[in-house]
Specification:
The chain is mostly beta strands. Helix content is 0%, strand content 52%. The protein is built from no helices and eleven strands.
Length: 125
């Protein structure tokens, strides 16, 4: 079992910035990162990172604007979001995978077997 505690999120105007944090505890995880789900849409991968490394993947829609990083001793992953757009509005979920796997499909939600409760990000125009 992996427990995930999220923090951050909130409301911001377009062009602004926010930072999300997610602290993990419990069993060892391999991949960890962030997904989001807007009303009426499927949950999509935003950014993920391999534990203990800087090996990361991003959705095309956030490349150059979002940065994922981690504090290894704290088992905490951060998502720094800049140049936010109204289309970034969604519930953001932290996710972790205890399944050792390759980079292929790193952003696929089916790979992740533990999820946080979610934190809302709202970007107004």
């Amino acid at each position: 079992q992996v427990q995930l505690v999220e923090s951050g999120g909130g409301s911001v105007q377009a062009g602004g910035s926010l930072r999300l944090s997610c602290a993990a505890s419990g069993d060892t995880h391999y991949w960890m990162g962030w997904f989001r789900q807007a009303p009426g849409k499927e949950r999509e991968g935003v950014a993920v990172i391999y534990a203990g490394s800087d090996h990361s993947y991003y959705a095309d829609s956030v490349k150059g604007r979002f940065t994922i990083s981690q504090d290894i001793p704290k088992r905490t992953v951060y998502l720094q979001m800049t140049s936010l757009k109204p289309e970034d509005t969604a519930m953001y979920y932290c996710a972790a995978s205890t399944i050792r796997s390759s980079d292929y499909g790193a952003l696929a939600r089916e790979r992740y077997n533990f999820w946080g409760q979610g934190t809302q990000v709202t970007v107004s125009s």
